[in-house]
Write a structure and sequence with these properties.
Length: 259
């Protein structure tokens, strides 16, 4: 089973406007390979003929070897494999490891900066992003720099923040940082908390558990993954919900009684 694909969910729910759908169909919105493939297949049934045509052209432009390699990945949806199997395209024997590059990408991604931005540059970047329209911010969320993602993960539009989490350039250290941020939307934390790959990173688990905006049920579940030191710290953390702090305290007491 593949991990959730947050960006695709918005398209399936019909929450993406025509400009966004056309951009995605043309490959201009280029998330991770398996997500882009699922997105293009979904857009083949779009209500707009131009979107359908663009999605079909994008799929036909993908070399069979790259397509078969993506179909062999564990994070590719079974429904996508079935779609291509009906057309005679099957998973390759040896899928690539760690390759998140999009299959169709007509525009190169914005290169990362060599050094962190100073305060003035960050403020200027924030102002630039604020002047962008929805489609431009959407593209920046997926193809922009680390600094752009750090701003856009807090965008009030849920599709923009979800697009950040679909960027093939996103690193686990960024995800761990997002998990600690109390000024991101709850949907962002839910998406992170449902991704099994990201939850293998202990920093992500700690960040989510201690984040006061993480849904309580998720925090309580993740608490069981914390080491003794972090559970003890959680038991006295006044920034987390009281039920979580109480649960952590009980766990500390139980562990102490066994010694």
């Amino acid at each position: 089973m593949s991990d959730p694909t947050p960006l695709l969910d918005f398209f399936k729910r019909g929450e993406a406007d025509r400009d966004a759908r056309l951009l995605a169909a043309q490959g201009g919105l280029a998330p991770r390979a398996h997500e882009q493939l699922a997105l293009l297949v979904h857009l083949l049934d779009d209500t707009d003929p131009e979107v359908r045509s663009a999605a079909d052209a994008s799929l036909k432009s993908i070399p069979t070897e790259a397509l078969s390699a993506t179909l062999a990945r564990g994070d590719t949806a079974d429904s996508v494999r079935e779609y291509f199997a009906e057309r005679g395209v099957f998973p390759s024997a040896a899928p690539p490891e760690g390759n998140e590059d999009p299959l169709v990408d007509p525009e190169p991604p914005i290169p990362e900066t060599a050094a962190p931005l100073d305060e003035e540059a960050r403020e200027s970047l924030t102002q630039q992003l604020a002047k962008m329209n929805f489609t431009q911010r959407l593209r920046a969320a997926v193809k922009g720099t680390r600094e752009m993602r750090a701003v856009l993960i807090r965008d009030p539009n849920k599709m923009i923040s979800a697009s950040v989490l679909s960027s093939p350039k996103l690193t686990e250290s960024e995800v761990a940082g997002f998990a600690r941020m109390a000024n991101v939307g709850e949907d962002v934390l839910r998406i992170i908390g449902k991704n099994r790959g990201w939850l293998k990173n202990y920093g992500v688990v700690v960040g989510l558990t201690k984040n006061p905006k993480t849904p309580l049920a998720m925090s309580l579940n993740l608490m069981n993954r914390l080491n003794d030191r972090d559970v003890t710290m959680l038991s006295i953390d006044r920034n987390v919900p009281e039920p979580l702090r109480v649960a952590a305290r009980k766990k500390v007491v139980a562990a102490t009684s066994k010694r």
